[in-house]
Amino acid sequence: MPRRIGMFFMSRFSFSVTLLVFILSFAPLALSQQNHMNLDKYVCVVCHSDLEDEILTPPVKDWKESAHFEAGIMCADCHGGNPNDEEIAMEPSEGFVGKPEKKDIPKLCSKCHSDAKMMRAFNQRSDQYELYSGSVHGQKSASGDADAPTCVDCHGKHKILKVKDPNSMAHRKNIPETCGGCHSKKDVFEKRRKASNQLELYKKSWHYQKFTEGDVLVPTCMDCHGNHGILPARSERTQTVCFNCHAAQAENYKSSPHWTAFKKTGEPVCLNCHKNHDVVRPSVAKFSGKGESDCIQCHEESSPAYVAGLGIQSLMLSTIKAVETAQTEMEEFKANAHGGFEISGIEERLAKAQTNLAELHIITHKMDVESLKKTSETVLSQASSVSGDIHNMLAEIQTRKIGLAGAWFVFLGLMYSIWAMGKAYERKE
Ligand code: HEC
Ligand code: HEC
Ligand code: HEC
Ligand code: HEC
Ligand code: HEC
Ligand code: HEC
Ligand code: HEC
Ligand code: HEC
Ligand code: HEC
Predict the structure, then answer these.
(1) Which of 157, 301, 359, 386 is deepest in the core (most CB within 10 A)?
(2) Nearest atom of ligand 1 to the alpha carbon of 76
(3) How many angstroms separate the CA atoms of 410 and 180, rounded?
(4) Rounded distance between C-alpha atoms, residue 85 and residue 76, angstroms
C-alpha cells in the first residue's frame, strides 16, 4: 500500500515537472508573441496608426523597428496612459504624460536603464544615466540648456536600435555624423563662442583616413571623449587621452621636460605638437618647421630647447638616410643579381635596422639627443653592415664578370692561335 502511494506521487511529480518544463520552455516565445499578437487590441497603436498624421503616426512604425519593440517595451511604458481603453487612454488620471519635456527625457529612459536588475536580465549595463548626469551634456541639459543632447539625440526618438546595429545612430560607423553633425551647427555654437569645426577637422586626420578604411583601432569622437560621461575638453583626462593608445610615445614623453611643464601649466602635451582633431602623419621636419604645431611656437630660434631640437633632427636625418640607402641598395641588388647569393641574413639585419629606426622615432619624444645616440649607433652600424655586405657581393659579381671576360679572352686567343697555326701549316703545305 505505501509503495502504491509512493508510485502515485512519483508519477504525479514527474508529470508535473515535465509539464512545468514544457510550459517554461515556451514562455519566452509566448511572452514575445503576446506583445506582437495583441497589437490590434493595444489602443495606442491602433488609433495612432489610423491617425495618418505626419507627427502622430510615424512613432508607431519607428517603434516597430526598435530594440524596445523586440523587448516588449510598449507605448504606455514610456508615455503612461491606459492602452486597453480607447476612451480613457490618454487621461492624466491614467498616468498619461504625453510628450515628455526635453529635460525630463533622461529620467524617463533611466526608469528602466538604471534599473540594474532589469538590465542584468538583458545582460546590459545600467550606468548610462549616472555617467550622463555627470557629463557636460547632462549638466547643461539639467540646467535647461535646450541645445545639449539628451538620450534621444544620440539614439533616435522611437527608432532606437541596438548600438551594434549598423543603422544605429550610436554605432561606431555613424559616430562622426551623430556627434559631429550637432557640433557643426554654427547657430548653436557661435553664440557660445565655441568652435563648430570638429568634424571638418577630424575629416582631415590620419585617424579618419584609417577609419574610412575600416580600421577599428583608430579613434572616433567617442573613443577620445566617451559617449555618456563626456568631460570638459580642458579636463586632464581629455588632454591626455592620446596616452590610452599611444603608450610608447607617452612613456617617452613622460620622461621629457614637457611632462613636468604640463603638470604645472597644462602644456605642452601631445595635442600641442600634433593637434587633436586634425592629426596628420608627422615627420622630423617638425623640429625646424614653421607651422603652428612645431617647436617654434613655444621656443625662440636661439633658445637651448630649439637648438636641442635641431640636434635631434640632424641625428635623425642621418640615421634615416643610412637605413634608406641600405634599403634601396638591397632592392637594386635583388632586382639585378640573379641567384647564387645567400641574402636572408642580410635581409634580417635590414629588418632589424628598420625596427630600431621605428623605435627611434618614438624616443624622440624624450626631447633629448643623448637618449637617441645609443639606438642611433646600433641602427647606423646595422645599416652600414647591410650596405657593406651588398657592396662586397657587388664586388664579387664584378670579379666574376672580369674572370669570365678573361676566360673568354684566353679561350678566343687560344682558338685564334690554333687557327693561325692551321693557316700557317696550310700555307707551308
Ligand atoms: C482614439 C485615438 C487615440 C488613442 C487610443 C491614443 N491616442 Fe495618443 N493621440 C491621439 C491624438 C488625436 C493626439 C493629438 C491630439 C492630442 O494631443 O490630444 C494624440 C497625441 C498623443 C501624444 C502627443 C501628446 C503631446 O503632448 O504632443 C502622445 C505621446 C500620445 N498620443 C501617446 C498615446 C499613448 C501612449 C496612447 C495609449 C496609452 C495613446 N496615445 C492613445 C489619439 C489617440
Ligand atoms: C522608449 C520610450 C518610448 C516609447 C516605447 C514610445 N515613445 Fe513616444 N516618445 C518618447 C519620447 C522620449 C518622446 C519625445 C521625443 C522628443 O522630445 O523629441 C516621444 C514622443 C512621442 C510623440 C510626440 C511626437 C512629436 O514629435 O511631437 C508621440 C505622438 C508619441 N511619442 C507616440 C508614441 C506611440 C504611439 C508609441 C507606441 C507605438 C510610443 N510613442 C512609444 C518615448 C517613447
Ligand atoms: C552624446 C551621445 C549619447 C547620449 C546623450 C546618450 N548616449 Fe547612450 N550611447 C551612445 C553611444 C555612442 C553608445 C555606444 C557605445 C559603444 O558602442 O560602446 C551608447 C550606448 C548606449 C546603450 C547600450 C549599452 C551601453 O551602455 O553601451 C544604452 C542602453 C544607452 N546608450 C542608453 C542611453 C540612455 C538611457 C541615455 C540617456 C540617459 C543615453 N544613452 C544618452 C551615445 C549617447
Ligand atoms: C520600460 C523600460 C524602458 C524604457 C522606459 C526605456 N528602455 Fe531602452 N531598453 C529597454 C529594454 C528592456 C531594452 C532591451 C535590451 C536588450 O535587448 O538587450 C532596451 C534597449 C535599449 C537600447 C539598445 C541597447 C543595445 O542593446 O544596444 C537603447 C539604445 C535604449 N534602450 C535606449 C533607450 C532610450 C534612449 C530610452 C528613452 C527614450 C529608453 N531606452 C527607455 C527598456 C527600456
Ligand atoms: C584623437 C582624439 C579626439 C578625437 C577623435 C576627437 N576629439 Fe574632440 N577633442 C580632443 C581633445 C584632446 C580636445 C581638447 C582640445 C584642446 O584642449 O585644445 C578636444 C576638444 C573637443 C571639443 C571642445 C571644443 C574644441 O573644438 O576644442 C569638442 C566640442 C569636441 N572635441 C568634439 C569632438 C567631436 C564632435 C569629434 C568627432 C567628430 C571629436 N571631438 C573627435 C580629442 C579628440
Ligand atoms: C544635439 C547636439 C549635440 C550632440 C548630438 C552632441 N553634442 Fe556635445 N555638446 C553639445 C552642446 C550644446 C555642448 C555644450 C557646449 C557649451 O556650451 O559648453 C556640448 C559639449 C560637448 C563637449 C565639451 C566641450 C567643451 O568645451 O568642454 C564635448 C567634448 C562634446 N560635446 C563631445 C560630443 C561627443 C563626443 C558627442 C557624440 C558622442 C556629442 N558631443 C554629441 C551638443 C551636442
Ligand atoms: C583609440 C586609440 C587612439 C587614440 C585615443 C589616439 N590614437 Fe593616434 N592612432 C591610433 C592608431 C591605431 C593609429 C595608427 C593608424 C595607422 O595604421 O597608421 C594612430 C595614428 C596616429 C598618428 C600617425 C602615426 C604615424 O604612423 O604616422 C599620430 C601622429 C597620432 N595617431 C597621434 C594621436 C594623438 C595626438 C592623439 C590624441 C589627441 C591620438 N593619436 C589618439 C590610435 C589612437
Ligand atoms: C614637443 C612636441 C611633441 C609632443 C609633446 C609630442 N610629440 Fe609626437 N612627435 C613629435 C615629432 C616632432 C614627431 C616626429 C618625430 C620623428 O619622425 O622622428 C612625433 C611623432 C609622433 C608619432 C609618429 C611616430 C612614428 O612612429 O613615426 C606619434 C604616433 C606621436 N608622435 C604621438 C604622440 C603622442 C601620443 C604624444 C603625447 C604622449 C606626443 N606625440 C607628444 C612631436 C611631439
Ligand atoms: C606648446 C609649447 C611647446 C612646444 C610646441 C614645444 N615645447 Fe619644448 N618646452 C615647453 C615648455 C613649457 C618647456 C619647459 C620650460 C622651458 O624650459 O622652457 C619646454 C622645455 C623644452 C626642453 C628643455 C629645455 C631646457 O632648457 O631644459 C627642450 C629640449 C624642448 N622643450 C624641446 C622642444 C622641441 C624640440 C620641440 C619641438 C619638437 C618643443 N620643445 C616644442 C613648451 C613647448
Answers:
(1) 386
(2) 35
(3) 80
(4) 12
Ligand 4 centroid to 67 CA: how many Å?
7
* 8 Å CB contact between 158 and 48: no
Q: How many residues does the chain have?
A: 429
From the CA atom positions of the chain, what is the Rg in Å? 37
Indicate which ligand has the atom closest to the C-alpha of 177.
5
| 160 ligand 4 Cβ < 6 A | yes
Surface-to-core class of residue 383, CB atoms within 10 Å of its CB (0-12 exposed, 13-18 middle, 19+ buried):
buried
pLDDT per residue over 147-161, tens digit each? 999 999 999 999 999
Q: How far apart are CA 69 and CA 344, in angstroms?
A: 62
What are the pLDDT digits (tens) for 96-127?
A: 999 999 999 999 999 999 999 999 999 999 99
Question: Closest residue (by CA) to atom 24 of ligand 4?
Answer: 162
Distance, first Cα to last Cα, the chain:
143
Ligand 2, pocket residues at CB < 6 Å: 44-45, 48, 55-56, 59-60, 63, 68, 73, 75, 77-79, 99-100, 102, 105, 108, 152, 157-158
In angstroms, the CA 135 to CA 226 distance is 10
Nearest alpha-carbon partner for 151 in 184, 102, 117:
102
Q: Tens digit of pLDDT for each residue in 258-304?
A: 999 999 999 999 999 999 999 999 999 999 999 999 999 999 999 99
Distance CA 314, CA 4 (A): 99
Cα angle value 124/163/179 (rounded, 5°): 120
Q: What is the rounded CA–CA span in Å between residue 77 and residue 83? A: 10
- Taking CA atoms only, the protein residue closest to ligand 8 atom 19 is 282
Query: CA–CA separation, 401 vs 404, rounded Å?
Result: 5
Three cell numbers, residue 237: 583626462
Q: Which three cell numbers stand for residue 166?
A: 549598423
At 82, is the pLDDT very low, low, confident or very high (cuts 50, 70, 90)?
Answer: very high
